[in-house]
């Protein structure tokens, strides 16, 4: 049996932005590029949420390359397809270097055909353990979004439904038909 070499968030950061990894409890987790359809949906979501966040001056956003430290003790860094942190939690914005030092308030993950169910469940468990208030798992094939609100049962919203930002993005609504364009 071989021991797994644990990695720190700082070591991951020093590897550079071209390294296709997240850090799950000290272990490097390879993340592959997503499908074109998944990426398109991620961009459409980022545009819609981004316009709302900017118009309301609510906080700070990242794309799929932005890392968030979910846990310093267990050295966990993830890069959701879209992340958002409220301004009051990060009054001076993002630092020019390093990962965001805290979990996001909203993490949006767009499922790609290569994503494994076990990995999705494990990553959601990491978000839950870190206390992320709102996580959206977007499934382009099923045209659904599974909404995880901290302390509540997951809710599945289909293509005919509307997402809302709840307490994280008060007043934000998105008709899912507008991002599942076929």
Low confidence ranges: none
Total of domains: 1
**CATH class type:** Alpha Beta
Order of helices and strands: HEEHEEEEEHEEEEE
Number of E-state strands = 12
Portion of residues within helices: 10-25%
Q: The CATH topology, please? A: tt1808, chain A
Number of helices: 3
Radius of gyration: 16 Å
Q: State the end-to-end CA separation.
A: 49 Å
CATH superfamily: tt1808, chain A
Strand content: 25-35%
Biggest sheet details: 6 strands, mixed
Strand order of the largest sheet: 3-6-7-8-9-10
Mean pLDDT: 89
Task: Describe the 3D structure.
Strand 8 (134-139) and strand 9 (144-149) form a beta hairpin. With 182 residues, the protein is an alpha+beta fold. The relative contact order is 0.15. It has one domain: tt1808, chain A (Alpha-Beta Complex). It is globular, with a radius of gyration of 16 Å. It has a six-stranded mixed sheet, with helices on one face. A two-stranded antiparallel sheet has the order 1-2. Helices cover 23% and strands 31% of the residues.
């Amino acid at each position: 049996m071989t021991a797994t070499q644990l990695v720190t968030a700082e070591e991951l950061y020093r590897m550079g932005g071209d390294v296709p990894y997240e850090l799950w409890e000290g272990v490097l987790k390879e993340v592959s590029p997503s499908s074109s359809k998944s990426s398109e949906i991620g961009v459409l979501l980022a545009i819609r949420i981004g316009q709302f966040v900017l118009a309301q001056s609510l906080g700070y956003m990242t794309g799929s390359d932005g890392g968030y430290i979910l846990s310093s003790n267990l050295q966990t860094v993830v890069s959701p397809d879209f992340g958002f942190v409220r301004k009051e939690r990060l009054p001076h914005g993002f630092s020019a270097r390093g990962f965001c030092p805290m979990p996001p308030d909203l993490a949006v993950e767009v499922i790609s055909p290569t994503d494994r169910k076990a990995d999705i469940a494990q990553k959601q468990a990491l978000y839950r353990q870190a206390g992320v208030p709102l996580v959206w798992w977007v499934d382009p094939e099923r045209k659904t979004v599974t909404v995880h609100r901290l302390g509540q049962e997951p809710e599945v919203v289909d293509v005919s439904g509307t997402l809302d930002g709840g307490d994280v993005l008060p007043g934000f609504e998105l008709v899912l038909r507008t991002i599942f364009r076929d």
